[in-house]
Amino acid sequence: MVGGALGSKLIRLGHEVKMGSRTANNEKAVGWAKKNGDHASFGTFADAASFGEVVFNCTAGTVSLAALNSAGASNLKGKVLVDVANPLDFSKGMPPTLSVCNSDSLGEQIQRALPSVKVVKALNTMNCSVMVEPTLVPGKHDVFVCGNDSQAKTTVVNILKSFGWESIVDLGDITAARGTEMVLPMWLRLLGLYQTPHFNFRIAR
Amino acid sequence: MVGGALGSKLIRLGHEVKMGSRTANNEKAVGWAKKNGDHASFGTFADAASFGEVVFNCTAGTVSLAALNSAGASNLKGKVLVDVANPLDFSKGMPPTLSVCNSDSLGEQIQRALPSVKVVKALNTMNCSVMVEPTLVPGKHDVFVCGNDSQAKTTVVNILKSFGWESIVDLGDITAARGTEMVLPMWLRLLGLYQTPHFNFRIAR
Predict the structure, then answer these.
(1) Measured between CB atoms, which of B180, B200, B205 is closest to A137?
(2) Does domain B2-194 sit in CATH 3.40.50.720?
(3) C-alpha distances in Å from residue B132, one per residue of B4, B7, B124, B147
């Protein structure tokens, strides 16, 4: 869902997108590509990693490390990896817990696993419809980015601006992913309260 | 600091406040009482728990259970306990971690330890100056409450309104304390970024 939303938005903005999956002919990826025209294609995680200048990790957080391992460090080397995933563990029932948090985060785990990749955590604190269409939420609201590489963050900030984001908060290095991932329990609670995913965090100041 | 800010605000609003400490004559509590006039007094945790109709837990989160044990379940029985604390553990260096999170929270631990007390988690997601003077942060912003007892939440909501809070979000039962306590790593990161505690969360929708 998240990959489809981001991929379709990127194509509408003129980019080419290859949707990666565990298998080369994932049914949903094939269907997504068909609907999105000539600039859309599909393949394995390795195919997508090799194809992209910028790579988005939109896999389930609990399997992101396995998916990125399958994508291959050599295919990702030196690239900007936008980590959108949250390590939500639904295996112990509802509400989900985080499979990593507090003194570590998924963003940091990915950066450690792939030291030659420029990991930027972003877009993980809102629903995917809001990610690509910030005006779905009225008024001012924020998207957070963090990562160790300034140039990579600038690349991501420019993509976010092209999505329509006006308030982009740079929280610093990748350890800030602890903070943005740990707001998920609050986000899920608010989803239950408002019964719509069309809300977002705003830092008033 | 938090207890002093809340106590002084409550006195300005016409309430009587007894500041509890580990010892009956805590120097800071004595000083606070002197500055706050006839409606201010001090004593042990047990004295304060016995005195209050509504009790605020403003102790450091990692020692809150010990402080409340010292206050005494019989002194707290049936009362509304506003839990303002966060379980921040500074013992492993900076940034602090949470001593409890993810599948549990300090709010829930306190409710389990004191089943006859009506625990309402509130005010733990902002600086104490903002708690008692929401207009320090411009524009709309939110305070969150959660707890198992509806009447107790109404009592707390009315106190928050008297503090000047206009947007009070009821997140449901006490398990929502996981969510509000887990935003602290983000809050601390934002404190570092903005170099002022005069900011707050707003849910845009």
Answers:
(1) B205
(2) yes
(3) 11, 10, 12, 21
